[in-house]
Write a structure and sequence with these properties.
Elements (H helix, E strand, L loop, with lengths): L2 E3 L3 E3 L1 H13 L7 H14 L4 H4 E2 L2 H12 L4 E3 L2 H6 L20 H13 L4 E4 L3 H9 L6 E4 L7 H11 L3 E4 L6 H13 L27
Helix pairs in contact: 2-9, 6-7, 7-8
Length: 219
């Protein structure tokens, strides 16, 4: 039987079982809610439990980003592979329009073009090119969140360290690993988390997110 979650998302039983097994092998209950959601979905996307110790994020920053995301803030991605993994939001990717030049990679140029299009306050999801993340850090982008999880042996760890040093609200990781799938997963974790009810509005029944409640085995 399928499970219905926020935004009428129907979750396949295989995914439900995958999260059950993940939690059987790794205790994530000590993480605050949004951090837990991101950690679990990134691990789920990569089948790599080590992300629990590798990821770096701040719950307060995630809360603000979650609000901005659900209020319709633009989502910018560095490559179409990231866009393909974000299942419930239109994204901006300008890589097809970009070109390389002296001292400028095509990925970096795409970030410039995207910023010209969306302006400040966007969520940026970078899962492929370290130079895209490096370029973003040179702009006055005032992001709602930067999910900086590029992968590679050249520049990836360094660009993520620079992101953390920048003080921008961010999700990053310490190691060289990353990639489009995990970057999209981090954004999806925020998309799938329900918006807290307005205390001034009478509460109504809502679906329960698989990232916020432990999965229980059927008797």
């Amino acid at each position: 039987m399928s499970h219905v979650f926020p935004e009428s998302r129907v979750v396949h039983p295989i995914e439900v079982e995958s999260f059950r097994r993940l939690r059987a092998r790794l205790d994530t209950s000590h993480f605050p809610p949004l951090t837990r959601a991101v950690v679990e979905r990134v691990i789920h996307s990569a089948a790599d439990l080590a992300y629990a110790e590798d990821l770096v994020m701040d719950e307060a920053a995630l809360e603000k980003a979650h609000g901005a995301l659900h209020e319709g803030a633009p989502v910018v991605v560095d490559v179409e592979m990231v866009a393909a993994g974000i299942t419930r939001r239109e994204t901006v990717c300008r890589l097809k329009d970009a070109s390389s030049g002296p001292g400028l990679t095509r990925s970096a140029h795409a970030i410039r073009l995207a910023y010209e299009q969306v302006g400040p306050g966007a969520l940026w999801v970078i899962g492929c090119a370290p130079t895209a993340l490096e370029e973003l850090l040179t702009l006055d982008a005032a992001p709602a969140l930067v999910i900086g999880l590029p992968v590679g042996f050249v520049g990836a760890a360094e660009s993520k360290a620079a992101l953390r040093e920048s003080g921008l609200p961010a999700v990053s990781n310490i190691s060289e690993k990353g990639g489009s799938a995990v970057a999209a997963a981090a954004l999806n974790a925020l998309l799938y988390q329900p918006v807290p009810p307005d205390p001034l509005v009478s509460p109504v029944p809502s679906a329960v997110s698989e990232a916020s409640e432990p999965l229980k085995e059927k008797p």
